[in-house]
Specification:
This protein has about 500 residues and is mainly alpha-helical. It has helices at about 15-20, 30-50, 75-85, 95-110, 120-130, 150-160, 175-180, 190-195, 200-230, 240-245, 250-265, 265-270, 285, 290-310, 335-365, 385-400, 425-455, 460-475, 485-495, and strands spanning about 5, 25-30, 90-95, 135, 140, 165, 170-175, 320, 325.
């Protein structure tokens, strides 16, 4: 990716979203195709308004008030009021990265050309991103249908020059930030308010960032699992290609391939290939392709769904310039997003569970040939004992987070919105799950790296020795008891940055 990103409503990638979320620097522009599509859909709105036609949310009220016709003189006020009244969120502000992803996705869906908003709506969203103006968006308030109305309204409010934003490292009024950047507040027209707030962009934005973090953590877990296998003198036999071929799930095959590649050429493995009395390893070692692979397939499905969602038109009503129709529908309903993010949380909880079992086997002398808790002086020293305890705490939270949100619809909007997705709740769970998994992976990497030390001078594979060296740059070898928090934080950050995503 270069230093420019042109959005057209159709070609955004999940990696684009993550790149823009990371901060100002990548300059965003509206593609010519997106501009043409915006103009075409806007013309339909303007023609029908002039003709006096009844259009939901444009010439009528919203939700339960859809039958109320709005006088011509009050139609702009309707759009302003829907933004102000829906800016009703509360709780901690969303992280800057999430807000940037949210704004990008809203600009992209408007560029799809089926929302009927004015060009300035998209242009100002892009200006905010390029100039580092980040609306303060509270974490609570959306049920994921009719779209993420409340959080998107907080973004739209800032475009009006109202509410607060984060700008140049400070929380200031949106009016002051606009003035500092010499930008004019948005002057809304018919449909603009509704177009800005009606869609799935909050849960999708959070979901994209959570998914990418979970994918990196799963890659790191495969590396950790391979290193653990060598530390525990396990067998690579269960990863044979022939075994995967007779049960050809793509994730399982990929997981086994990565494990074979990572372990190829290990002198530690060769040292016990002959004469080992064990016929089979524990499931946490032997079944890594099956368990890690199931998570790979789950995350692949989530990626597939989110890749479609970020390039979709999700507001209501939708404008179809090719036919001149304006049609009310339900694309704002985030059920697909909620379900895949629940699946992400479930997959994350399960791979964390198998990782914890490997950690226990390395630290528990009853399950390995390694010193108790990998301590240099077991008894006098506790070594890495408490890392397994801390992971047990994380694992319990992950299991709670794996409880689905997408099945908990609570009717809203005077029962007009009688089935909602709870997509934002699912997204918040997935976000926290992915972050927690990075800690679990970090603990396994630290324990496995320490376990390898007890097999010296034998070396693992070239790939795993590079991993070991990278860990040692962040975490020194255990020579005596020490506080372990900093060690885990440093390695977890490496996991989140994708340092263990190859091969």
């Amino acid at each position: 990716m270069g230093s420019m990103l042109s959005i057209d409503g159709h070609s955004l990638t999940l990696e684009d979203v993550a790149h823009v979320a990371a901060g100002p620097g990548l300059q965003i522009s509206l593609a010519a195709d997106g501009r043409a599509a915006l103009l075409a859909s806007r013309k339909v709105i303007e023609d029908k308004v002039r003709a006096g036609e009844r259009i939901y949310g444009v010439t009528t009220g919203f939700g339960r008030l859809a039958e109320v016709m709005i006088p011509v003189a009050e139609r702009v006020a309707l759009q302003v009021n829907v933004i102000r009244s829906h800016a009703a969120g509360f709780g901690e502000p969303l992280p800057r990265e999430a807000v940037r992803a949210l704004m990008l996705l809203r600009a992209n869906t408007l560029a799809h050309g089926h929302s009927g908003c004015t060009m300035r709506c998209v242009e100002l969203l892009i200006e905010f991103l390029n100039r580092g103006i980040h609306p303060v968006v509270p974490e609570f308030g959306s049920v994921g249908a009719s779209g993420d109305l409340v959080p998107l309204a907080h973004v739209a409010l800032a475009l009006l020059g109202e509410g607060d934003v984060e700008h140049r490292g400070n929380r200031v009024s949106a009016a002051d930030a606009l003035k500092a950047e010499q930008l004019q507040p948005l002057q809304v027209r018919e449909k603009d308010g509704l177009a800005l707030i009606n869609g799935t962009q909050l849960c999708t934005a959070l979901g994209v960032l959570a998914l990418i973090e979970a994918e990196r953590a799963l890659d790191g877990m495969e590396v950790a699992g391979a290193l653990s296998l060598d530390a525990l003198l396990g067998s690579t036999g269960p990863f044979a290609e022939a075994i995967q071929a007779v049960r050809p799930h793509p994730g399982q095959a990929e997981s086994a391939r990565r494990l074979r590649t990572l372990l190829h050429g290990s002198a530690i493995r060769e040292s016990h290939r002959e004469g080992d009395p064990r016929i089979q390893d524990a499931y946490s070692l032997r079944c890594m392709p099956q368990v890690h692979g199931a998570a790979r397939d789950a995350l692949a499905y989530a990626r597939y769904a989110l890749a479609i969602e970020i390039n979709s038109a999700t507001d209501n009503p939708l404008v179809f310039p090719e036919t001149g129709e304006i049609v009310s529908g339900g694309n704002f309903h985030a059920q697909i997003v909620a379900q895949v993010l629940d699946l992400v949380a479930i997959a994350v909880a399960d791979v964390a569970a198998i990782s914890e079992r490997r950690v226990d086997r390395m630290l528990n002398p009853d399950g390995s040939n390694l010193p108790a808790f990998l301590a240099r002086k077991p008894g006098v020293e506790s070594g890495l004992m408490m890392l397994q305890t801390a992971v047990a705490d994380v694992l319990t939270e992950l299991r709670l987070l794996a409880t689905p949100a997408s099945v908990h619809s609570v009717p809203t909007g005077a029962n007009r919105e009688d089935h909602v997705s709870m997509g934002p709740a699912a997204a918040r769970k997935a976000t926290r799950s992915a972050r927690a998994l990075s800690y679990v992976v970090a603990v396994e990497l630290i324990c496995a790296a320490e376990g390898i030390e007890h097999h010296r001078p034998l070396k693992s594979s070239a790939a795993l020795e590079r991993v070991h060296a990278a860990i040692r740059q962040a975490v020194p070898r255990l020579t005596a008891d020490r506080p372990l928090t900093g060690d885990v934080e440093r390695v977890a950050q490496m996991v989140r940055e994708g340092k263990f995503s190859e091969p």
